[in-house]
């Protein structure tokens, strides 16, 4: 059965909500975006995997002023996965305090819980080269 339009919209809004909460410092509301046992994979940034809401909040606080001042998300693509779960990919732009910006790809696994859709696993992949490295050979 195809994923209902209402569910697609809910997952898209869920992904967008993350930036609003983090940018506003509302880290205590991250349970509106993530499951309590979320795995947040920051391996591409040398930080490994962070597990659980408390650890995600602590990691953000430890990063402090090195966090982006603005998280923008776009290009959300949703596909059904096994067991009623959803895989979502989106592009993220982070604006830093000095005005520089960076680009990432969010790879999310989203599940439906009692309170609605939540991200149970997020992998953040930095975009460092154009075209995924195609044509960059020496």
TrEMBL record:
A Pfam entry, by short name: SnoaL_4
Domain of life: Bacteria
Domain SnoaL-like: 4-123
InterPro entries per UniProt: NTF2-like_dom_sf, SnoaL-like
Protein name: SnoaL-like domain-containing protein
